[in-house]
């Protein structure tokens, strides 16, 4: 259409995702989002309806981007849940170490701000954490293990992942983060491999 500036919606969501990831929902004002995306308020509202909807689209983009990597790591070692969890943490540590993206994790950042999110967005964040739990639980599946223990172990791995994100934002070193991941993998091994 002549006279109207066209923009790439996917690119705008990517740029908004970086803002929410770096600043959190509360500090990602429409002015900051507009500057990052190059869109005025009218265009933001026209394309996304609301800041809240843009936030959920950014969460979905983040989940699709990194969730696929987690899924690959967790399914690449069938029958070897310890190696699957090691691969999962390798992907997480690579993301944390990537200088092209903010430190931490958008989902962890968003979960920490649940009190200021709308109920729809808070539920969306919780749903993404539940999805991560389901992926990890599937990788841990062992017909010989107690299902309740496997559920608890999956919750533990989700918690360690979120803790790594928080620690990375607080300036923890790569060595410190790797030590946490290593201990988590040892815990998984100790819970899944019966003692002789």
Automatic annotation (TrEMBL):
Keywords: DNA-binding, Transcription, Transcription regulation. Transmembrane segments: none annotated. Residues 6-66 form the HTH tetR-type domain. InterPro entries: DNA-bd_HTH_TetR-type_CS, Homeodomain-like_sf, HTH_TetR, Tet_transcr_reg_TetR-rel_C_sf. It comes from the Bacteria. It holds the Pfam family TetR_N. Residues 29-48 bind DNA. This is TetR/AcrR family transcriptional regulator. It comes from Marinactinospora rubrisoli.
